[in-house]
Design goal:
Elements lengths: L2 H7 L4 E6 L8 H9 L6 E4 L11 H10 L4 E6 L5 H13 L4 E5 L20 H12 L16 E6 L6 H14 L3 E6 L3 H11 L5 E7 L4 H10 L7 H9 L3 H16 L5 E5 L6 H9 L3
Helix pairs in contact: 9-10, 10-11
């Protein structure tokens, strides 16, 4: 059992953070950012060619975190691999001591920097969860026995404040049936909508970790509105950032308030501060003052 899994099983309020591998072979800054958060975060999501932008291997990056004494959550995307490659990478992850997984279908190719690349999509996230469940029982996806069993703790993603929440709840149920043991959500800004979601999701008896996205400025809000579908930032927060003389600090304070409001409502928070991971420390320190 991973330490992350153990914390969730004990109903601790967990804190995870997203770290993005570099677009190049130099992993020094990647490791420095992760180590900066070592005493503040329980586990680190390692993104896998996020937004279809080519980056350093998420599998190798996760292994580097293990070597540094940190606990990764290896995000593995169906977009870039067929079933052979997915299962091969999973076996490799198991051998390298990586236990936590977040299977993803993957962003569309058109979102990234390799417009002529071909998406694979032989599997999507539910099929990959089913594969992980089978490998934990000693079989591959096609029920051929493998030498030994893996010991993965797999999660999934959900959008808790989407307009048609019933569709997402049904998809969530399928993921649980396929083997998902925890859920990390997309960024939550609408607390009332999230409360409604949590009330509905109680029937699943699963662990839910709410996404917290650092918004750095009013300009950043506009960028997110055009590049992150389904993200609804309330007008009051937009105005607060627009009126601020120090938008970055205001963004830190907004994130801290969100975390404080979510304590006791869900099982943890997942912090996303893309390119500004050092601000996660400021956010968590500010929570203590509230």
């Amino acid at each position: 059992m991973s330490t992350f899994q153990e914390r969730l099983s004990k109903n601790e309020f967990v804190i995870t953070a997203e770290v993005c591998p570099p677009k190049g072979p130099d992993t020094k800054e990647f490791l420095e950012k992760a180590l900066l958060l070592k005493d503040h975060v329980h586990a680190f999501n390692v993104t896998d060619n996020q937004r279809s932008v080519m980056r350093f291997s998420a599998l190798v990056s996760s292994h580097l975190l293990v070597q540094a004494g940190l606990e990764p959550i290896f995000q593995i995307s169906c977009r870039d691999r067929n079933s052979l490659a997915l299962e091969s990478d999973l076996l490799g992850a198991s051998r390298l001591g990586i236990q936590n997984l977040l299977p993803l279908t993957g962003d569309p190719i058109r979102a990234g920097d390799h417009q002529l690349a071909k998406g694979v999509f032989e599997f999507e996230s539910v099929k990959l969860l089913q594969t992980i469940k089978k490998m934990n029982n000693g079989f591959d996806f096609y029920d051929n026995p493998i030498d030994g069993k893996t010991n993965f703790f797999a999660g999934a993603v959900v959008n808790p404040t989407a307009p048609n929440i019933n569709t997402h709840l049904k998809r969530m149920e399928k993921k649980i049936e396929a083997g998902a043991k925890f859920f990390q959500t997309q960024a939550v800004f609408d607390l009332k909508a999230f409360e409604v979601f949590m009330k509905e999701a109680q029937k699943f008896n699963t662990k839910i970790i709410a996404g917290i996205l650092l918004i750095r400025s009013h300009k950043n809000v506009n960028y997110l509105r055009h590049h992150v579908p389904g993200l609804n930032i309330p007008e009051a927060l937009k105005q607060e950032l627009k009126d601020s003389s120090n938008p970055m600090q205001t963004g830190v304070e907004i994130a801290a308030r969100q975390i404080k409001s979510l304590q006791g409502l869900c099982h943890g928070v997942h912090l996303m501060a893309i390119k500004y991971e050092e601000k996660i420390v400021d956010i968590l320190n500010h929570v203590k003052t509230l």
